[in-house]
Amino acid sequence: MDALRQQAAKAATAYRDWGSLHARSAAGLATAVNILGRLQALQDASHFEALGCSKEVQEEVLAKQLQALHAALASVHAALSEMQAPVRELERAALEAAKRGAAMPLAAAAQRRGPEPSAAEVVEALQDAWRMCRDELVLKQTAVGLVTLDASPGDTAALLACYEAQPNIDQPRLEAFWQQMAETAPRKPL
Known about the structure:
Helix content: over 70%
Pfam families: CA109-like
Structural class: mainly alpha
Number of helices: 8
InterPro entries: CA109-like, OPRN-like
Number of strands: 0
Strand content: under 5%
């Protein structure tokens, strides 16, 4: 079980990294969505005319907003690229745990000791964590590809809400697993 605990610890670290990168990418996407909403209003020359601003001022403001949009989307793409590392680490942990679990006698792999999960449950949880994050990464990459200048504010708001919600990840289940592993870890003597 110690080898499985090591894999679970590696997976927990990778999942924490995933969470940080998700937060960073979601913040970048929220910025991009906000900019897209402003761009539509900024393209209306009457707003600038009412303020007594010239066409050049409008073009300069639009150019700066487009640069900011590009920077926001670049940060999202960078975070998505970095998210591949925790997904790979989760996969490695899941595969190693599966190999260790398969090497155990069936009765031992299925046996629980008190509140401690069985080896089979650890393997299943690590495989689930990997699959959830893998599938969520594909969804995120696809969602970011749908962010375009002609997307409606309603569509981009819905896209952002889906992105932030991470529908492929069962957060309560994974958090319960990590907590169970922490609570049942062998205590080191003082």
